[in-house]
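Lab channel / #folding
Pinned by the channel admin:
"Please post every new chain as: sequence first, then the C-alpha coordinates as a reply. Keep commentary short and put observations after the output so the thread stays searchable."

First post following the new format, from NK:
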Amino acid sequence: MYSLLIKLMLISALLQLGISIEDYLFCNSKACTSRIEKASRDVLKIDWKPISVWPKEAQRFR
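Reply from TO:
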Protein backbone atom coordinates (compact mmCIF):
# COMPACT_ATOMS: atom_id res chain seq x y z
CA MET A 1 0.00 0.00 0.00
CA TYR A 2 2.85 2.37 0.86
CA SER A 3 4.61 1.67 -2.42
CA LEU A 4 1.44 2.63 -4.30
CA LEU A 5 1.24 5.86 -2.32
CA ILE A 6 4.88 6.68 -3.08
CA LYS A 7 4.35 5.99 -6.79
CA LEU A 8 1.30 8.25 -6.87
CA MET A 9 3.24 11.01 -5.10
CA LEU A 10 6.08 10.72 -7.62
CA ILE A 11 3.67 10.83 -10.56
CA SER A 12 1.93 13.87 -9.09
CA ALA A 13 5.22 15.70 -8.57
CA LEU A 14 6.34 14.97 -12.13
CA LEU A 15 3.06 16.18 -13.56
CA GLN A 16 3.34 19.43 -11.62
CA LEU A 17 6.77 19.96 -13.16
CA GLY A 18 5.33 19.35 -16.62
CA ILE A 19 7.25 16.12 -17.15
CA SER A 20 5.52 13.01 -18.40
CA ILE A 21 6.23 9.62 -16.91
CA GLU A 22 7.72 8.40 -20.20
CA ASP A 23 10.23 11.27 -20.16
CA TYR A 24 11.29 10.30 -16.66
CA LEU A 25 11.57 6.56 -17.33
CA PHE A 26 13.59 6.94 -20.54
CA CYS A 27 15.85 9.70 -19.23
CA ASN A 28 19.39 8.40 -19.71
CA SER A 29 21.34 11.44 -20.86
CA LYS A 30 22.91 14.26 -18.88
CA ALA A 31 20.82 16.86 -20.74
CA CYS A 32 17.62 15.10 -19.76
CA THR A 33 18.48 14.99 -16.07
CA SER A 34 19.58 18.62 -16.08
CA ARG A 35 16.25 19.60 -17.67
CA ILE A 36 14.38 17.83 -14.86
CA GLU A 37 16.56 19.53 -12.22
CA LYS A 38 16.01 22.94 -13.82
CA ALA A 39 12.24 22.41 -13.87
CA SER A 40 12.24 21.48 -10.19
CA ARG A 41 14.31 24.55 -9.27
CA ASP A 42 11.90 26.81 -11.16
CA VAL A 43 8.96 25.41 -9.23
CA LEU A 44 10.67 25.63 -5.85
CA LYS A 45 11.91 29.22 -6.26
CA ILE A 46 9.80 31.50 -4.05
CA ASP A 47 10.05 35.28 -3.97
CA TRP A 48 9.94 35.87 -0.23
CA LYS A 49 8.97 39.29 1.09
CA PRO A 50 9.00 40.32 4.74
CA ILE A 51 5.67 40.78 6.45
CA SER A 52 5.35 43.26 9.28
CA VAL A 53 2.46 43.91 11.61
CA TRP A 54 3.65 47.35 12.70
CA PRO A 55 3.76 50.28 10.24
CA LYS A 56 7.18 51.56 11.42
CA GLU A 57 8.70 48.13 10.85
CA ALA A 58 7.14 47.98 7.38
CA GLN A 59 8.67 51.35 6.47
CA ARG A 60 12.09 50.12 7.54
CA PHE A 61 11.99 47.24 5.08
CA ARG A 62 10.92 49.36 2.08
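NK: The helical segments are 2-17, 21-25, 30-44, 55-61.
TO: also worth noting, The CA atoms of residues 3 and 9 lie 10 Å apart.
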